[in-house]
Amino acid sequence: MRPHRYRMGLITLLLLTLAACTSSQAAAPSATPVPPSATPVPPSATPTEHVIVAVTIAPKPKPTAAPAAQPTDVPADAPQPSAQAHVFPVQGAKVNYGASHHDYPAADIFCAQGSQFVAVTDGVIDYVSHKDVWDPATNDPAVRGGMSVAIIGDDGVRYYGSHLSAVADGIEPGMRVVAGQILGLTGKSGDARSTPPHLHFGISRPTTPDDWKTRRGQVAPYRYLRAWQRGENLTPALP
Q1: Under DSSP, is residue 36 helix (H, G, I), strand (E, B) or coil?
Q2: Sign of torsion, CA 181 237 149 135?
Q3: What is the pLDDT of residues 53-89, one digit of tens each?
Q4: By C-alpha distance, which of 38, 106, 143, 171 is closest to 97?
Q5: How many domains does the chain have?
Q6: Separation CA 125–CA 175 (nearest Å)
Q7: Is residue 70 part of a domain?
Q8: Does the residue 234 lie in any domain?
Q9: Helix, strand and coil percent figures for the chain, each rounded to 5
Q10: Where are the beta strands (DSSP E) in the chain?
């Protein structure tokens, strides 16, 4: 009977031990939950980085200067200001003239027909005869010059050329011209029909356009013609 009692004692002791362990575990306080905000960050988590981006602001470009205005193209044959220069009245031709004229001061400048008659200086057209109306039967002295042009120069002198074969296009009274501008072409109109072609050239004081007697010549041109051929800027002296 003793072994049985011994086994019963062991079993009783084991049950008491188990009961004590269970009671101890039940009495242990439960773990206090960790607030969410206090949850530690796992070692693998990387804190947010604040990245500073450098922005380069380019300087505002300076406005480009406007290109300088270019001069307007001017036709090669356009008249240019001459600062009251005086030029020989016939251009582009071989000429021949003398120091004397018949019964009044003037010059007959002999040259090939169709040579250029040009403005002696800057001025304004005073008189134009576009047609040759001279009639030898009446021999009216007012129209003996045939086709002709006169200008009043800026120097205060009137210059007259006659016996033309043509008047240049656009040449009309009141039109402004400059030295060297073509006024017409030389010829044999008027009472020069029976003579070699030439330009009758007269210098006078300004008067009315119908004053043909003064217009045809009042100052001997020879001295001035010679100076202008040499390139001298000589203004005629009026009486």
Answers
A1: helix
A2: negative
A3: 444 444 555 544 444 434 334 344 444 545 569 999 9
A4: 106
A5: 1
A6: 5
A7: no
A8: no
A9: 20, 20, 60
A10: 90-91, 107-110, 116-118, 123-129, 147-153, 158-167, 176-177, 182-186, 198-204
Q: Which residues of 42-77 are buried (b: 16+ CB within 10 A; e: fewer)?
A: eeeeeeeeeeeeeeeeeeeeeeeeeeeeeeeeeeee
Whether 120 is in a domain gets the answer: yes
Residue 101, amino acid = H
106 neighbors 201 (Cβ within 8 angstroms) = yes
Please give the torsion angle defined by the CA atoms of residues 107, 113, 115 and 118, in that order, rounded to the nearest 10 degrees: 50
User: CB neighbours of 148 closer than 8 A, spacing ≥ 6?
Assistant: 127, 128, 129, 160, 161, 162, 163, 164, 184, 190, 200
CA distance 232 to 225: 10
How far apart CA 149 and CA 38 sit, in angstroms, is: 116
Assigned domain for 213 exists: yes
Indicate if the alpha-carbon torsion angle 71, 76, 80, 85 is positive or negative.
Answer: positive
**Torsions phi, psi for 204 (to 5 deg):** -155, 175
CB 144 within 8 A of CB 191: yes
Structure tokens at 205: 């004081």
Write out pLDDT tens, residues 148-192. Answer: 999 999 999 999 999 999 999 999 999 999 999 999 999 999 999
Rounded to whole angstroms, how far apart are CA atoms 43 and 28? Answer: 31
Question: Residue 165's domain is classified under what CATH number?
Answer: 2.70.70.10
Q: Model's pTM, two decimal places?
A: 0.66
**Structural domain boundaries, residue 110:** 90-229
Report residue 26 as tokens: 């039940």
Q: Which tokens sit at 98?
A: 């003398």
